[in-house]
Amino acid sequence: MKTTRLLLALMLLWTVMACKNETADPIDDTAKRAMKENNGLIGKWKLTEYLADPGDGSGTYREVTADVAHTIEFKENGEFIETKGQGQSSVPLFNAYKVLDDKRVELIPIDKTAPSHIWFYSDLSASKLTLGYGCIEACSGKYIAVE
């Protein structure tokens, strides 16, 4: 009888340990692990770190806070979508893009009288991307692929 109870207890324990928590967030630390893989630039990207240099070369990458958090999306049809953080203007400036070469992408403004803007990209993989925003001083952002 003790053996039967022991086996039942072990089976119950094994069953409980084998179950997944379906309500848990599958990725707790999105800054360290990509949630998805993109195809080149095409896909949705979330900013995880940003660099803002005062012009003297002393700038370093900083973790993103809610006020500067944003996502960008390069769609296959050339559409560009940017969702900005709470500390930024919610007015979108660009709605289209064109890849110029293997290092540059041109953002096309919604206001067709405004000039386009060139971003530089590097460290491109299916799960990460670094974008240089074309500032006079150094400024860039590190992104991960998201759904």
Poorly predicted residue ranges: 2-34
By secondary-structure content and strand pairing, the structural class works out as: mainly beta
Q: Give the rounded overall mean pLDDT.
A: 79
Give a count of the beta strands, DSSP E runs of length 2 or more: 9
* Shape designation: globular
> How many angstroms does the end-to-end distance come to?
52 Å
Number of helices: 1
| Largest beta-sheet details | 9 strands, antiparallel
Share of β-strand residues: 35-45%
Q: Could you explain the architecture of this structure?
A:
The chain has 147 residues and is mainly β. It has 1 helix and 9 strands. Strands 1, 2, 3, 4, 5, 6, 7, 8 and 9 form a 9-stranded antiparallel beta sheet that branches. Strand 1 and strand 2 form a beta hairpin. The relative contact order is 0.20. The N terminus is likely disordered.
Please supply descriptive tags for the structure shown above:
147 residues; mainly beta; 1 helix; 9 strands; 35% strand; globular
Quick gist of this model?
Helix content is 12%, strand content 35%. It is globular and about 40 Å long.
